[in-house]
Amino acid sequence: MRQSGVRVILAALPLLLAGCIYGFAGGGLPPHIKTVAVLPFENETPVSTLQTELYTQLKREVENRLGLREASEAKADAVVRGRIVKYDYDIPVAYSADPSQANSAQRKLQITVDIEIVDQSNGHTLWSQKGLMREGTYAERSEDSGRRAAIEKLVNDIIAGAQSQW
């Protein structure tokens, strides 16, 4: 009985593997999505550079990791757009009791965005997320490094979310 069960599994294994290979090809994108327009997010925060930093990294990663070509909004198969709704920084995380340490405190910042990816052929939202928040920690007076970490996490989550929903 055991041997026949093993034989069935071994016989079905190539079919299962082939299904996985073909089922996930192209990152799960609908076959007609070949081009994308990543639009700069509306920035509702006082940090003027945040919009450019997020846009640059998101655009690069959407094209590289999803295998899409850049196109203008009018010609793109899909459009990525959103809003940066919140930027909280200088949130204390930890303090050092050792006065000889150069950095006496750890801080964190949080970036919150609303995002949607729309199929331009039919107007359907392929993926959206409101209130997507990620944070980055940084040493005191090194806010830029925390912001880069939070942006990287946001971009990773956007790519993963888009792949999982399409």
Overall description:
This protein has 166 residues and is of the alpha/beta class. It has one domain (28-165): ABC-type transport auxiliary lipoprotein component (Rossmann fold), CATH 3.40.50.10610. It contains three helices and six strands. It has helices at 2-23, 48-66, 143-165; strands spanning 35-38, 42-43, 69-70, 78-95, 105-119, 125-139. A hairpin with a 5-residue loop joins strand 5 (105-119) and strand 6 (125-139). The longest helix has 23 residues, at 143-165. Mean pLDDT is 83; it is low at 5-27.
Task: Summarize the topology.
Blueprint: H1 2-23, E1 35-38, E2 42-43, H2 48-66, E3 69-70, E4 78-95, E5 105-119, E6 125-139, H3 143-165
Parallel strand pairs: 1-3, 1-4, 2-4
Antiparallel strand pairs: 4-5, 5-6
Helix pairs in contact: 2-3
Architecture, CATH level 2?
3-Layer(aba) Sandwich
Order of helices and strands: HEEHEEEEH
Integer-rounded radius of gyration? 21 Å
Please state the structural category. alpha/beta
Using brief descriptors, characterize the structure shown.
166 residues; Rossmann fold; 3 helices; alpha/beta; six-stranded mixed beta sheet; 6 strands
Quick summary of this structure?
39% of the residues lie in helices and 34% in strands. It is of the alpha/beta class and 166 residues long.
